[in-house]
Amino acid sequence: MFDTIIRGGRISTASDTFFCDVGITDGRIAALGADLGTAAEIIDASGKWVLPGGIDSHVHISQPSGEGIVMADDFESATRSAVIGGNTTVLPFCMQERDVPLREAVNAYHARADGECYTDVSFHLIICDPTPAVLGQELPALVRDGYTSFKVFMTYDGLALTDRQMLEVMAVARETRALVMVHAENYDIIRYLTDQLEAGGHTAPRFHATSRPVIAEREATYRAISLAELSDVPLMVVHVSNREAMDEIRRARRRGLKIFGETCPQYLVLTENDLDGLNMEGAKYVCSPPPRDAASQKACWEGIEQEIFSVFSSDHCPFRYDDPQGKLAPRGRTSFRWVPNGIPGVGARLPILFSEGVMKGRIDINRFVALTATNHAKTYGLYPRKGTIAVGADADIAIWDPDRRQKLTHAMLADGCDYTPYEGIEITGWPVTTLVRGKTMVRDGDLIGRKGHGTHLTRAISAYA
Ligand code: DUC
Ligand code: ZN
Ligand code: ZN
């Protein structure tokens, strides 16, 4: 007797597809087989596809974003959108603040998340001030406590690390076996071009893209890879937007290095032309790196198909559009430099890749599962508890209707934002029912679970570290 049986579905993991029932007990998958008998709850999945719940390993929630700017999502609204979009775990960032012990920052994020989440969560650590105490004591202690990944930035005032500081963080990563994620864009190129553009009166949102060219991303990607090679650590290059940066990852992998790449929906379905909107409409698409052109979209698809990219994340970083604390902040109207940087996507990520990737024949369903769940779990120390459908794993499951066709609208996403950059995209396939650790959180499209079911996960060491 199980708590729940999912009956009659077509199950896919990152490697296999098969038809059987899923028996769930105490939040875990207890059996896979034919005719599992009876249970307190039977979910009929005939005609549906039963997949591991999505893991989105790159989301920003309730992160301080500059004076007068407020993120559109707290943990409740972001994880609500996540679970409605078929996710069962998200990995947000905990950002270090200068002169504040890192542990205090971690505690502050816990206070914001605890009791608020619909999905499970687990924090990466953003390191912006690698002091001797942070490097020597705080990071090793936090890795021991299950915060096993760091993010470093090569650009942005207050965030960018020097090459030397990157090496110091990588040395700690090597010692502790933490995984390093890098935001790779050349700080001085961006600062220089931004000053030049502003001096010429080019301040509209579309010049955000002009100020952050492919060369800035390619150069920083190569430099980050070089620092990781010297340090002998694996590296995840996040939010890769174009062929040239991708080719640096490809070359590094050919040299046998453990360099990994992530891409995101904005690099598959948006272009810099979207930043061209009248008045401030283009601000809805301001994110970094910026969306590029049709050739870059094609390159990112190639990277997905050829396994240069191992993870597909949303980089959910939401700011309301029609809001003085969001995209229409007064300062942002004076220059693209001040437009809050980031776009929402945690709810739209999976339907976009399912529809554009699987339904259009670019990738198969097993690759979809790898890109959206299994590889995230392996990379960030959650596998095999998360990211697959196997006996003993958490019952984190999304049941998809592969035939549902609709236009994506913001209202479907239930986040705290007031728009989606993906409005109007035709979507085939939708995650209709989602279970988090065996609990049905979304049933036939309706949110029925309670916030607070989602919990923080301490993570093991990455499979690649
Ligand atoms: N980098 C991110 O990873 N997210 C939003 C903005 C940025 O620069
Ligand atoms: Zn980034
Ligand atoms: Zn991000």
Automatic annotation (TrEMBL):
Its EC number is 3.5.2.2. GO terms for cellular component: cytosol. Residues 49-440 form the Amidohydrolase-related domain. Its cofactor is Zn(2+). The keyword Transferase does not apply. GO terms for molecular function: dihydropyrimidinase activity; metal ion binding. The modification N6-carboxylysine is found at residue 151. It comes from the Bacteria. The keyword Hydrolase applies. Keywords: Hydrolase, Metal-binding. SUPFAM superfamilies: Composite domain of metallo-dependent hydrolases, Metallo-dependent hydrolases. Pfam families: Amidohydro_1. Carbamylation allows a single lysine to coordinate two divalent metal cations. It is an enzyme of class 3 (hydrolase). InterPro entries: Amidohydro-rel, Hydantoinase/dihydroPyrase, Metal-dep_hydrolase_composite, Metal_Hydrolase, Metallo-dep_Hydrolases_sf. Belongs to the metallo-dependent hydrolases superfamily. Hydantoinase/dihydropyrimidinase family. This is Dihydropyrimidinase.
